[in-house]
Amino acid sequence: xxxxxxxxxxxxTWRPPDWEHDSTVQVTVRTTGGKTxxxxxxxxxxxxxxxxxxxxxxTDVVERIGETLGKT
Length: 72
Description:
By secondary structure, the chain is an alpha+beta fold. It has one helix at about 50-70; strands at about 5, 10-15, 25-30, 35-45. Strands 1-2-3-4 form a four-stranded antiparallel β-sheet. A hairpin with a 3-residue loop joins strand 1 (about 5) and strand 2 (about 10-15). The longest helix has 22 residues, at about 50-70.
């Protein structure tokens, strides 16, 4: 864990098993006006292709969370 701000965000170093390098992932949760936003931000990606794959990965994660919560 790189940093933690209670009820706001967490930053951590992450490396999937098939990668040869670390990445930094930040997960932010914000509630404004009765709506909650969950945001993933990932840094230190190898290239444009890896960035596109990770965008698709995190989009899927958010969709599955929404389905689990019955919000999609």
